Automatic annotation (TrEMBL):
This is Integrin beta. Keywords: Calcium, Cell adhesion, Cell junction, Cell membrane, Cell projection, Disulfide bond, EGF-like domain, Glycoprotein, Integrin, Magnesium, Membrane, Metal-binding, Myogenesis, Phosphoprotein, Receptor, Repeat, Signal, Transmembrane, Transmembrane helix. Residues 2-358 form the Integrin beta subunit VWA domain. The chain crosses the membrane at residues 623-645. Its main location: membrane. Residues 646-692 form the Integrin beta subunit cytoplasmic domain. Belongs to the integrin beta chain family. Residues 534-622 form the Integrin beta subunit tail domain. It is found in: Cell membrane; Cell projection, Invadopodium membrane; Cell projection, Lamellipodium; Cell projection, Ruffle membrane. Coiled coil: none annotated. InterPro entries: EGF_extracell (IPR013111), EGF_integrin_1 (IPR040622), EGF_integrin_2 (IPR057073), Integrin_bsu (IPR015812), Integrin_bsu_cyt_dom (IPR014836), Integrin_bsu_tail (IPR012896), Integrin_bsu_tail_dom_sf (IPR036349), Integrin_bsu_VWA (IPR002369).
Amino acid sequence: MLSISVNRRKESPVIQNPREPQTFSLKFKRAEDYPIDLYYLMDLSYSMKDDLENVKSLGTALMLEMEKITSDFRIGFGSFVEKTVMPYISTTPAKLRNPCTGDQNCTSPFSYKNVLSLTSEGNKFNELVGKQHISGNLDSPEGGFDAIMQVAVCGEQIGWRNVTRLLVFSTDAGFHFAGDGKLGGIVLPNDGKCHLENNVYTMSHYYDYPSIAHLVQKLSENNIQTIFAVTEEFQAVYKELKNLIPKSAVGTLSSNSSNVIQLIIDAYNSLSSEVILENTKLPKGVTISYKSFCKNGVNGTQEEGRKCSNISIGDEVIFEINITANECPKKEQNETIKIKPLGFTEELEINLQFICECQCQSEGEPNSPACHAGNGTFECGACRCNEGRIGRLCECSTDEVNSEDMDAYCRRENSTEICSNNGECICGQCVCKKRENTNEVYSGKYCECDNFNCDRSNGLICGGNGICKCRVCECFPNFTGSACDCSLDTAPCMASNGQICNGRGTCECGTCNCTDPKFQGPTCEMCQTCVGVCAEHKDCVQCRAFDKGEKKETCSQECMHFNMTRVESRDKLPQPGQPDPLSHCKEKDVDDCWFYFTYSVNSNGEANVHVVETPECPSGPDIIPIVAGVVAGIVLIGLALLLIWKLLMIIHDRREFAKFEKEKMNAKWDTQENPIYKSPINNFKNPNYGRKAGL
């Protein structure tokens, strides 16, 4: 038995019977203006150089944004690089002073440094972060897990309050975890304790990186919710890590951290809108189960019963918690269970008081006449025998009873088993064993019967359709079979025409067993290899209705197995919806004319055919339009070919003319004079020409 009391509640402990769950409700309501502590933990390896510039003004900007959510907000800052041993960093003196190459001015490498404890002064955040410098290391994964562990366990140095605690982990690389320290000769497991001196982690060279499970434990113990702000390249890695760390979120960080404020706001809204309950370790024999009643009628059970999502400020959700004691502890001491929502400091403490004796035992009647003349105490409706007495009513003495004589009364005829190996022979009577499941019982004079070893169907004893009595199923009405798995209900076998299995089979255990192997389906309605009804009867309908077709000569011998009715048009044919199964047919006769008929079979097995008396024959082709179309087509094709030929000739002529013009231009003589050329023409001038006469 179990008594439960819950602290901070004005209710009396409730006593429950063994294995009967104790149920109570827990209400959760998201508060408005709840205080927030946010610690920004940043990777200061060289690849984060451009990110640091944007983070330097984060304090005041984030303060302004968070004022929209809460009036009580504090922010802190820490940085990490890597363990200060080879091969994670270079240990040469020059590299220890400045791990960066070229003229870059970098600070000495370090594991983790608490730059600013949590404060409400945003300007102080900007001032101290503005003085930080990038450092460097050799390998790509960083030592972020060392930093997360110290942030989680160094509550006094960080300044955590009992409020919402957010840890923003910003990086553009992967992470080292437990076991990686062996590369640097570090084999001692992380002890999960605070080792900050002057706000610097001093034992990175001594302790290995923490494991993921170790981090989960410490983050949960200290109610810290983690936001992983990582670049797109490492999204997949940190999403897998998020699945292992409860109450954590992953956001995509831009290449220079310009979107970090919006990332933090979105992640906080996502985390604060979900509540997940967890409990401390349960005492042996105690089980706990949850059922959630969330917004919009969404309910959850088992693991989903521990959480609710999409909770807005002022929303209230209810969790129904069941605690069951399956056994009593050896020392009968009281136990305590604590239940709390992940990420919150508030918790519910449940006190368990185990009552392993019934109250009626204190009211027992010693030496009661009901126990064979006072040989026992009658309590709780049964006899508790005095020392030296046995039997249901304490009727036997252990000194007088010869066990061999008594065992004979506990064996079935022709059997050597005492009480069928399912009980003990006490005072010549079988006392059957008790089972862990109190619903499972041995019974019978020799404990030969039970109610749990009957045949099963669908994983249920007697298929859930009967009662197991002495290993034999007694079926409920309309069920039969060794496991009551055979239904006598014929409704599943009823075809649409009102016949059981369409008259082609028998209904066995609610399923049609088709007698004709050609037919199959739930009601023997399908035949994959059968000729269709229409094709099967078309020749007989053709010969009887129109006196033609392949069976015209043998129509009176082969085609008189159905009743035929002629109708004027297709509209007069029987339509679907009548009780008899009906097939509508459209077939071609020997003259390529279409004729229509229906075929049905009534409940008496009589076949009825209704046929349209006038076939639909297609009219012959109209020759004139066909000939005209062919001629027109030939003419059009000829004209098209002629036009194409003409176009090609024009293009050819133009190309030839252009070629001629080009050659003509190239054929002109050079007009420059030949220096050795001498003209054949000589000019002579008469010296006396033009003089006056008489001189």
